[in-house]
Amino acid sequence: MCPMKQSKDNALILKFDRGTLLLETKNPAPFKQAVSSTAFRYDERVFAYRCDAIHYSTICETAIQAGFQLTDNVAKWKRVLWPEPALPEPRREQKEAYHAWMATKRGFIVMPTGTGKTEVALAIMRDTGVSTLIAAPVRDLMYQWQRRILGSLGCDAGIIGDNIFTVRPVSVTTYDSACIHMETLGALFKLIIFDECHHLPGDMRRDAALMSAAPWRMGLSATPQRSDGREKDLEQLIGPPVYNLPLSAIRGKSLADYEIVRIPIHLSPEEQEIYNSNSLLVRRYMSERNQAGKSFDWHDLLAETGKNPDARAAQKAYYIMQSIQDRAVEKLRVLEDIFRLHLGTPIIVFAGSNAMARDISRRFLIPCLLNHCGKKERMDILNGLCDGSYPALTANQVLDEGVDLPEAKVAVVVGGQASSRQAVQRLGRILRKSGNKRGVLYEVVCEETSEVRRSRQRRKSDAYEGTRHRRL
Fold first, then answer.
1. Domain housing 299
2. What residues have CB less than 8 Å from 154, skipping those under 6 apart?
3. Model confidence, pTM
4. How confident is the model at residue 134 (pLDDT cuts 50, 70, 90)?
5. Span 171-198, average pLDDT
6. Count of domains for the chain
7. Residue 72 pairs with which residues in a beta bridge?
8. What angle separates helix 451-458 from helix 420-428, to the nearest 10 degrees?
9. Residue 429 resides in a domain
């Protein structure tokens, strides 16, 4: 109960209801005027005003400042006592990030992969000591967070996701599970942490933030930029950026120094002929559709495939082009040379498709890590790479974000998206400091295909400055 005016007209009762807040009052007009917001809508089913739970802290602050008598029936969070906190001494940049977030207890931290964003979050969890929910984009990261919390804070966190529903004062979940269960979880945690928070502004995943009443919010990301520009929504969902550490500031210091080598290759004559014929079909169709005088793009083509046979043919031709450049025979030859060049060094190969990842796995007899692999299989593959049981592994996108691979210092990109974000995330897999070892990222690019454009797009990131060009 907050000390407010005792007038019945100023009495407010705030409740949590399935991811929303219910405001009960006999005279809502003064409060609605005070908050100056259209967030509340009258719900005739329950005879009360309703809004998203994300507005909880704003409502409480406004009620106090305006002198309303507020009965808060929302907050269900608890104090947390850590049994065995054991965190390493933070580095300078970690201390800066810690203090920047603690100043407001809202906002997101931008630090390159390998600089210890997780350690910053764990230190904040240790010192705030409140009920905390950590949301991660994939199951691997969810379990990784559970292990880190147990090892660093001595707490066995609950798991919400992967067919497990164990809710504890400190819990970990995935974004998708958070969206599903936040209607029951939203009032249980005072601090919510969104790992790889650039995933949050999606159409569905943003509900994980909107339906939570947590007043303290933290986001962690190495690359918050999104192709759709929705990273600006992070300020509403989490808070403003409070700390931004550029890669150039810690390259060769907190992170390993590295070099990027671009290796151009060519399709075989047979591959190039098939590629060119299908490319011509796609370009002709797009040109014909653009002659109508309005912009026609790939999304428009996909929308027409259900009713237009020519659109379906163009779509099929595009996928054939994609398959040819993803699975070019010459890429396997270059990979063989790279494996020989770095014999005895753990290597990660990033493929552009699951099919290419399987091709590489069969050709070189190395494990293939895909998104449908089970937890036990994933742990075996990752641990095997770190302890030397496996000389290399190949993956499509499952290793793009967050997974700890401290001993990997060589990576090969043989395909992937055009985004600078994916490029920086993949580069980050080999930048964790390990003595004076230098990281090497090879980028294998098919000339005279759309991979050239993708490569140029990836190199827009400042992390790709000084890329060397080399033939093997």
1. 269-326
2. 82, 83, 84, 85, 86
3. 0.85
4. very high
5. 96
6. 4
7. 14
8. 70
9. yes
